[in-house]
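User: My instructor asked us to take a sequence, write out its structure as tokens, and then describe one feature of it. I'm not sure where to start. Here is the sequence I was given:
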Amino acid sequence: MCLTGVDYFSTLAYQPSIAITSAGRLAPVATILLVLVTIFGAVPIYCRVAKSSPHGQGSIAMLQQLMRGWSDKFLVLTLLGFAATDFVITITLSAADAAKHVMENPLFHHVPSVFHSQIGITLAMIMVLGALFLKGVREVIGVAVVIVAVYLAMNLIVLSGGLVTLVQQPHYVADWWDKLSSGDVGIGGHSSDQETAHGNENDASTAADAAGAAPLIPLTWYSGI
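Assistant: Let's start with the prediction itself. The structure tokens for your sequence are:
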């Protein structure tokens, strides 16, 4: 289940940036819809598959039991091909994204420049994962359990920090709702005309007040970590 969870969580990891880019200020609504789909759609399906395939063969093995003949077997092989393609794409995208995060980490700047290659780091991660699969599925599942535990712990920190911030500074919610109610969804050219009209004036006043402005309050309680 954790091995499946790594694949699902890696997909969910892209959701915040995609939601902000595509939905703007509607991103919280889009996120809530995704959570509902996960709870009432994905989780029941996973439970059904786990119940019918307790040894981990998965949904394709369940489909294979219902089919007979070479044509049906060819269909199963085709579905396996799609699953393998999705698996490779997910691994490649996730490894490339992880490599980008590694390169932008300030601690990585002390590493010799010869290792500052996103493609090289991506290939190294994929080779390590391939070596784990060659060693055995049990080892891969063990790594997946650790990754899922760390991912859930990090999400707990981020969510709790966000909730604490909203409780301490509720005007963020009020400002978000006011702009959303006025039709300013924050996507491309959909920003409010009033905000655009006063943009230049605000830039001048902001530059003038920047020197004497009070330090910004961190948006999250854990920002100093």
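For the description part of your assignment, you could build on this observation: The longest helix spans residues 69-104. Try explaining in your own words what that tells you about the chain.
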